[in-house]
Q: What sequence folds into this?
């Protein structure tokens, strides 16, 4: 979504550009949400920035849980071949 | 109605014929067979009907039951099979061509099965042919994976047939519909367990990520389409509204997210993604309203499109580079720009970006959860949709096509774009994803249950999705270095039989050998004791008997005791004693008889 730029995102410059584009898209999405008043089914989901919070928060929570799972479950690639 | 061509027949005929030809001609036969299946589905008369009835051994079988639900799945199965055959054109071995076509044919047979017995037959045929598709990977790992796949699916099949037998015994019927199964008691639970194993429900989920990535680059495309979606189909038909499926689905979503986020192998990521997405479908089935069931069916339809596309992209990359781990890939954009664009369409569809088919189908399930006032479930599904962006939506295109290609060496051959036929197959699916995303009417027209249609393109919904995905994308952009995959594997539930199997074997071996040694020792001791008894027993007995009479024998007692012992040991007993013993024995018998 934000990674397909003319500057390859894998490079340092590309990464900076990708971050700027991502921030720009996020700002645009918030603006759009502000004018469309969100999509309220329960009340709380119509609050300004609710979906932004869910999107970013879900990422953070997932990375934490996946990292924690790795502490217990990570093994070498050849674990079953030994 | 027997004039209707059963859609599985062209595929099964193709499976029989295509191995007779070379790679290209055989590939053409495969494409024609899949298109024949598509043509047969298109030629089915509209409306609900049954055909191809057989009465065998007192059981009435219905091989072709046509209704809207079956037709929706038949359309996507034949479409996916056609695109997959096109993608694989000229690159499949004869075994794989036969196995993949038979596998697709068996899945169609299961979809059109009008009773539980027919379903069971095609269900097992599907497991058997899928095993051969995995075996066609032709590596030691693929052989191990195929063996484990067979074991898990045999267990699922045993659950299914045991359930079938119990249901038939209780109700006297083998009808396959929700109303009949709702009254069927414990047998229905066993059938549900059999279905859930095929749906890769946790904890019977690891077989999927264990087996699909070990197939060939073309075989994986077929595998990704049929087994789990057939399970979704039978769950929609047999168990709509079973509340437990909501929780099973949520568990699958979380499990798929965590493992896909940790995984380094490209096709294992996509395999965990299948479990994750099937979780959404199970939530829809569990909600059970017509709108939710439509959502599950539509999501299955779209999921086959974009997941087949992603497996094709992964297969093309693996074929071009010979590498399958994200830590060994990267920087392929310049060498494979078309593969990148098509894969990105699949990844965006998986993320349900507006304008793709995922945006049309996935919100149907979320909306059904909202309609049922299940705020927590809805919030979980919404957050999980954002998670999709992190594990695949952005991760797969970014880590595969951009950044440095870490493991590239000068010995590696130059990376080339996927062959034209493969690009054509991918192109058809990518175009379908985009067309249905922008003009969903054909998909909405296929939906099986009457329910108010969800307005997919309301501005509020587009804005909400846009915001959710944009911020998930921002998280990815900020934390891409953290999200970069690491070498290694994450233990899954297959550990219990992959590590537990050898432990059980060693335990059985040790226990068996221990028991063997114990009994061998026991037998040796018994034999020694018997030997001692037979050698010394008679002389001791004779000595004892004579010893009893020693007060009467006087000074000859000791000599007579020794003579008696010697006579017994050498079996030279005096005839008088033998006669007396015989008489005593006869008297005893007479006393007992009289």
A:
């Amino acid at each position: 979504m934000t990674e397909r730029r003319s500057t390859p995102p894998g490079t340092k410059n590309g990464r900076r550009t990708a971050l700027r584009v991502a921030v720009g898209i996020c700002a645009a999405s918030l603006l759009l949400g502000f004018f469309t008043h969100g999509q309220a089914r329960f009340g709380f989901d119509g609050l300004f920035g609710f979906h932004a919070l869910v999107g970013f928060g879900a990422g953070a929570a997932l990375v934490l849980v996946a990292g924690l799972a790795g502490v217990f479950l990570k093994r070498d690639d050849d674990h079953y071949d030994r | 109605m027997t004039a209707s061509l059963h859609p599985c027949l062209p595929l099964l005929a193709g499976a029989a014929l295509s191995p007779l030809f070379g790679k290209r001609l055989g590939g053409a036969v495969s494409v024609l067979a899949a298109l024949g299946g598509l043509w047969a589905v298109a030629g089915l008369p509209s409306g609900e009907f049954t055909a191809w009835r057989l009465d065998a051994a007192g059981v009435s079988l219905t091989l072709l039951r046509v209704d809207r639900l079956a037709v929706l799945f038949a359309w996507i199965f034949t479409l996916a099979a056609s695109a997959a055959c096109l993608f694989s054109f000229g690159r499949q071995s004869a075994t794989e061509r036969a196995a993949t076509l038979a596998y697709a044919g068996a899945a169609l047979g299961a979809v059109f099965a009008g009773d539980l017995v027919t379903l069971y037959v095609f269900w097992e045929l599907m497991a058997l042919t899928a095993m051969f598709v995995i075996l066609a990977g032709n590596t030691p790992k693929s052989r191990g994976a195929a063996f484990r796949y067979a074991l898990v699916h045999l267990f699922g099949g045993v659950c299914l047939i045991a359930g079938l037998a119990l249901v038939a015994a209780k109700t006297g019927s083998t009808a396959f519909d929700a109303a009949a199964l709702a009254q069927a008691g414990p047998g229905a639970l066993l059938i549900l367990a059999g279905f859930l194993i095929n749906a890769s429900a946790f904890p019977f989920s690891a077989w999927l990520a264990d087996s699909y990535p070990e197939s060939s680059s073309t075989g994986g495309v077929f595998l990704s389409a049929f087994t789990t979606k057939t399970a979704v189909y039978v769950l929609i038909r047999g168990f709509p509204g079973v509340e437990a499926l909501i929780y099973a689905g949520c568990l699958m979503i979380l499990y798929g997210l965590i493992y896909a986020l940790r995984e380094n192998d490209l096709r294992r990521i996509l395999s965990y993604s299948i479990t994750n997405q099937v979780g959404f479908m199970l939530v829809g089935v569990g909600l059970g309203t017509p709108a939710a069931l439509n959502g599950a069916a539509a999501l299955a339809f779209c999921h086959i499109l974009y997941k087949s596309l992603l497996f094709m992209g992964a297969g093309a990359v693996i074929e071009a580079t010979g590498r399958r781990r994200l830590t060994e890939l990267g920087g392929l954009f310049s060498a494979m720009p078309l593969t990148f664009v098509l894969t990105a369409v699949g990844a965006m569809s998986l993320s349900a970006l507006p304008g793709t088919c995922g945006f049309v189908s996935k919100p149907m399930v979320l909306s059904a959860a909202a309609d049922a006032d299940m705020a927590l479930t809805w919030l979980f599904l919404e957050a999980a949709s954002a998670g999709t962006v992190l594990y695949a939506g952005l991760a797969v295109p970014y880590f595969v096509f951009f950044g440095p290609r870490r493991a590239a060496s000068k010995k590696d051959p130059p990376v080339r774009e996927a062959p034209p036929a493969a690009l054509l197959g991918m192109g058809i699916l990518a175009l379908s994803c985009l067309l249905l995303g922008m003009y969903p009417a054909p998909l909405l027209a296929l939906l099986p249950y009457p329910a108010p249609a969800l307005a997919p393109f309301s501005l509020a919904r587009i804005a909400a999705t846009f915001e959710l995905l944009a911020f998930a994308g921002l998280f990815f952009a900020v934390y891409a270095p953290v999200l970069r995959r690491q070498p290694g594997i994450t233990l899954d539930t297959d550990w219990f039989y992959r590590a537990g199997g050898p432990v059980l074997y060693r335990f059985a071996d040790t226990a068996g050998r221990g028991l063997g040694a114990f009994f061998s020792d026991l037998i040796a001791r018994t034999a020694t004791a018997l030997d001692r008894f037979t050698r010394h027993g008679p002389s001791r007995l004779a000595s004892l008997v004579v010893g009893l009479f020693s007060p009467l024998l006087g000074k000859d007692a000791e000599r007579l005791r020794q003579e008696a012992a010697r006579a017994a040991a050498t079996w030279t007993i005096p005839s008088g004693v033998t006669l007396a013993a015989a008489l005593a024995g006869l008297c005893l018998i007479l006393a007992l008889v009289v």
